[in-house]
Design brief:
264 residues; alpha/beta; six-stranded parallel β-sheet; 7 helices; 16 strands; elongated
Amino acid sequence: MPIIRTGEPTKQRGRHVRRRVLLLGGTGEARSLAALLDGHPGLDVISSLAGRTTGVRPPPGRTRVGGFGGPDELRAWLENERIDAVIDATHPFAARMTASAAIATAEAGVPMLLLRRPGWTAGPGDDWSRVSSLEAAATSLPGERVFLTTGRTSVAAFAADTRRWFLIRSVEAPAPPIPPHAHVLLDKGPFEVEDEIGLMRRHAIDVLVTKDSGGEMTAAKLIAARRLGLPVVMVDRPPAPGVPTVAAVEDAVAWLLGPEITRS
Ligand code: NAP
């Protein structure tokens, strides 16, 4: 089992060898990590984006865009690019990419780290119901005027609801179909608590639906719902693969620059 040391550039046949890292991105954490690693003398980092969102500022350093084509193709890509380590810093709900990376890295014998921000936890005064899927959320709404913040590709799960009214907030226009009684608000975080309270009051919202994305950028709506005494339907995260996992960008740097990464 060869040992790959990433802390310092190693010498091979008299020249320095840079360790090659694939950073799966699409999140603020991935961007921060790319910025921290950019220019490190021992590392050659390639950030990867799905390329679905328009107008995204590319992360610092080298970037590639677009899907790999599935686990087999990703494995071939890792081998062709001679990748030494993969950090998956995708969104907690980007389950297909994460599953694909777990399979491809296991088969290629490349170490993988999951950088995953913690989920949200209910506190005193919160009235949350946790559900396992968007479909379950759609069939268990305790109100009539719904603030739907589950993302543009998640709206279709609610499209058959012809009775309720939806305020749909997403960064880009939601993918059809959407519910017949709806107002679409294109906006992106960070959001402030007072603004969220004002928005929910203006639209007479009586239930908030969100995915358990975690993080500070979009947490204000949860505080607003608590202050207004509104119920929250929280869609649980999909299960994560059993690979080493850290919550903080600094811990991902420590893993990458640690004493050794073992490649099988
Ligand atoms: P997904 O369902 O897991 O991904 C669908 C497919 O898109 C994957 O199978 C993969 O294609 C490709 N893909 C996803 N992330 C990629 C990456 N970083 N680099 C290259 N290809 C990638 O993910 P999703 O929910 O559509 O999210 C897409 C991207 O948006 C992710 O990078 C994620 O971090 C970001 N994002 C997602 C959410 C969310 O709520 N889901 C929120 C914010 C940001 P192949 O199978 O062909 O390789």
